[in-house]
Amino acid sequence: MTGFGRIVSPGQPSSDDPGEANQPVAHIEKRPDRPKPWRVRYRDPTGRERSKSFARKVDAERFMATVQADLVRGEWTDPRLSKTTLDEWSRRWLRTKAHLKPKTLAGYRSNLHAHVLPAFGDYQLRHIDRMAVEEWLADLQATGLGPSGVRQARQVLGAMLTLAVDAGYLTSNPVEGTKPPRQPEPEMVFLDADQVDVLADTIQQPYGTLVYVLAYGGLRWGEAAALRRKRCDLDHSRIHIAESLADVGGRLHFGSTKNHRRRIVPIPGFLTDLLGDHLDRHVADDPD
């Protein structure tokens, strides 16, 4: 017996203890007629028998001890899976994100091709370690990428490797524990009523009304761009926010709001009048 494993000769049963049959025991067989006579045999967590051969006994014993320890700790992973490259894995990971908004998915793709795959695309999953991730984050900052961009790149790599852990390709995620750069809190700048009036008068018409909708309704840009006639309840001085519009690769996509929630926004009387006039002059009668 060596550690948790056993060395057996040809024809000898792998276990002489009935109770040991239920344990994840690895054992070594010696096959003198083979170029690599020392073969480690074990069963993975699914019960499938696996083996690996070595030319030297010491290498077989070292491998057996590692496999047995991983099985006992519940950290064993299929070696063939961890040889998958990050480039291959990224394509499978992206397929699991098909439910996301087109703009979000496009952002993931852009981040992958700009920052993640150039650094780790050819790496096998098992070769991406904590130090490599730390150096990568430092390199991104050194190239001038801002804190927000670095955090987004880290988030994409971390999400991919989290799925690799959950799927049994890795035992741990090397991105966990790394610290993204601190993102400075931006100073908020707000226009007062007079400045809003100047902006609305200066902008090309008929978009002055849009300025007032953004300023007094508090809409996000995509929500204002997606506003339809049927969402404007002028009789009650309110607008219904139900969707958002995004430009993805030069194509417009309607979708849900950022937080996937609908809401009703009250608007002041003067804006009700402006919006009504805008609809009469510039928008077709079609409610959509």
Plain-language structure description:
- With 288 residues, this protein is of the alpha+beta class.
- It has three domains: 6-76; 86-166, Tyrosine recombinase, N-terminal domain (DNA polymerase, domain 1, Orthogonal Bundle); 193-282, Intergrase catalytic core (hpI Integrase, Chain A), CATH 1.10.443.
- The chain has ten helices and nine strands.
- The protein has a four-stranded mixed sheet, covered by helices on one side. The protein has a three-stranded antiparallel sheet with strand order 5-6-9, with no helix packed on it.
- The termini are far apart.
- Mean pLDDT is 86; it is low at 9-24.
Which structural traits does this protein have?
single chain, 288 residues, DNA polymerase, domain 1, hpI Integrase, Chain A, 3 domains, four-stranded mixed β-sheet, three-stranded antiparallel β-sheet, 10 helices
SSE inventory with pairings:
Layout: E1 6-8, E2 27-30, E3 38-43, E4 49-54, H1 57-73, H2 79-82, H3 86-95, H4 102-120, H5 130-142, H6 147-166, H7 193-202, H8 208-217, H9 221-225, E5 232-233, E6 238-241, E7 244-248, E8 251-255, E9 263-266, H10 269-282
Parallel strand pairs: 1-2
Antiparallel strand pairs: 2-3, 3-4, 5-6, 6-9, 7-8
